[in-house]
Amino acid sequence: MQAWQVHQLGEPSEVMRLQDVERPVPGDGQVLLKVRAANINFPDALMCRGHYQVRPPLPFTPGVEICGETEDGRRVLANPALPYGGFAEYAVADAAALLPAPDSLDDAEAAALHIGYQTGWFGLHRRAGLEAGETLLVHAAAGGVGSAAVQLGKAAGATVIGVVGGADKAAVARELGCDVVVDRRTQDVIATVKEATGGRGADVIYDPVGGEAYTQSTKVVAFEGRIVVVGFAGGSIPSPALNHVLVKNYSILGLHWGLYGTKNPKLIQHCHEQLTELAARGSIKPLVSERVPLAGAAAAVQRVADGVTTGRVAVLPALADGASA
Question: pTM for the whole thing?
Answer without folding.
Answer: 0.93
